[in-house]
């Protein structure tokens, strides 16, 4: 993270004696990236974070096989037709992925078990509902429109308050704000579309008593369930630059041009081999002869995965796209507005329409996305031909 935080009790110096009220020592845990060469946080546990009493292999319950997008085709998936059998971790339905990122959809109203992803960071977008995110760092209350960014190795669980729908972006490395938004020291710059004030992180420790507590751990070798001697939510304080946080899409400040701006102006995060963008309500392009709608384009290096989360999609009229839809426009295919959309938006501007209300979360990958069984199960088979009607 780009700025330093202190939560709870910590000693004045790092790696010095820090004693519990009974005279025993708190146990340090350094959570650090890139082999002590990047961001880190230092957590202080009541018990040893290394003490496990059992380990067992776990067979994944969900389908994880991916198939190439062959024959090459634009796709439309209707997540409204999907229903999870599990929680917001075990019930994730894998839609698409490659060696850099996995994109899953989940809907659930039940708490998840404790979970640690040791393969990479996660960014979970809450499309609908409210959920409590509990972790060794503390608690974040999240709701509709929140991105929750979770550093690699964070033990956490999700506790929904009623039904919750999410898009889970699981990276093979770290998810961060784009470098061009930050100073050389990590401060958000004035031209950035959001800043430190928009980020919400745990504000106080969250402790839970318990013994022989299972934690599901994902590694490159598969799934393991480790049983900890004491509950891992026993942290009395931490400080550093590495921690989970939430950012709401409504706090993204769109960048507007006289004529239509390309997707990089909507970029919100970057990960290894992919970017995440937020398309938010904004003023329409205001050049007197502007065409305030995307032009036909072919991103020769990217697959475009677009999750439509709110607003009006008049530019996609006739395509079947609606709230809850996901479109996949792969490299090798030129895509753009539906037939008639350009003329329709010019007419709308002539009638005094000055803003757009559409909202979407986009993931652009720099390697081709393969397709999951759950995506194919809710595919609209006629989508690819909608530009030819």
The helix/strand class is mainly beta
Q: Give the class-level CATH name of the largest domain.
A: Mainly Beta
Number of helices: 2
C-alpha-based Rg, rounded: 22 Å
Order of helices and strands: EEEEEEEEEEEEEEEEEEEEEEEEEHEEEH
Output the CATH topology of the largest domain: Jelly Rolls
Pfam family, one: HgmA_N
Organism: Nonomuraea aridisoli
GO cellular component, one term: cytoplasm
Protein name: Homogentisate 1,2-dioxygenase
Description of the structure:
It is a single chain. By secondary structure, the protein is mainly beta. The protein folds into 2 domains: 238 residues, Jelly Rolls (Sandwich), CATH 2.60.120.10; 132 residues, Jelly Rolls (Sandwich), CATH 2.60.120.10. It is 4% helix and 38% strand. It has 2 helices and 28 strands. The longest helix has 10 residues.
In short:
With 389 residues, the chain is mainly beta. The protein has two domains: 5-242, Jelly Rolls, CATH 2.60.120.10; 249-380, Jelly Rolls (Sandwich), CATH 2.60.120.10.
């Amino acid at each position: 993270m780009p700025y330093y935080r202190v939560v709870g009790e910590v000693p004045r110096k790092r790696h010095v004696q820090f004693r519990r009220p009974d005279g025993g020592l708190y146990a340090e845990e350094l959570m650090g990236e890139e082999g002590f060469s990047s961001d880190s946080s230092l957590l202080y546990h009541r018990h040893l974070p290394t003490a496990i009493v059992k380990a067992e292999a776990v067979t994944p319950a969900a389908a994880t096989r991916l198939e190439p997008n062959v024959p090459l085709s634009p796709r439309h998936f209707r997540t409204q037709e999907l229903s999870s059998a599990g929680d917001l971790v075990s019930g994730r339905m894998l839609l698409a992925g490659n060696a850099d990122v996995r994109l899953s959809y989940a809907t659930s109203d039940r708490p998840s078990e404790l979970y640690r992803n040791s393969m990479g960071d996660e960014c979970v977008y809450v499309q609908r509902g409210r959920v409590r995110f509990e972790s060794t760092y503390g608690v974040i209350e999240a709701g509709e429109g929140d991105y929750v960014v979770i550093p690699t190795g964070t033990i956490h669980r999700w506790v929904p308050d009623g039904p919750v729908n999410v898009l889970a972006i699981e990276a093979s490395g770290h998810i961060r704000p784009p470098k061009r938004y930050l100073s050389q020291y990590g401060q958000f710059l004035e031209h950035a579309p959001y800043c430190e004030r928009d980020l919400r992180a745990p504000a106080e420790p969250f402790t839970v008593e318990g013994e022989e507590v299972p934690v599901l751990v994902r590694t490159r070798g598969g799934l393991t369930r480790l049983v900890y001697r004491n509950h891992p939510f026993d942290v009395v304080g931490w400080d550093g630059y590495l921690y989970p946080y939430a950012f709401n899409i409504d706090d993204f400040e769109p960048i507007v041009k006289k004529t239509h701006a390309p997707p990089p102006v909507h970029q919100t995060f970057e990960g290894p081999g992919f970017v995440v963008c937020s398309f938010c309500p904004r003023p329409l392009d205001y050049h007197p002869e502007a065409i305030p709608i995307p032009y036909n384009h072919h991103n020769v290096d990217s697959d475009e995965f677009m999750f439509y989360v709110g607003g009006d999609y008049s530019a996609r009229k006739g395509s079947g796209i609606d709230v809850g839809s996901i479109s996949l426009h792969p490299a090798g295919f030129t895509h753009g507005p539906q037939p008639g959309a350009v003329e329709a938006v010019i007419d709308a501007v002539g009638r005094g329409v000055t803003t757009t209300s559409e909202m979407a979360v986009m993931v652009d990958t720099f390697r081709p996305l393969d397709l999951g069984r759950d995506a194919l199960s809710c595919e609209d088979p006629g989508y690819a031909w909608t530009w030819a009607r």
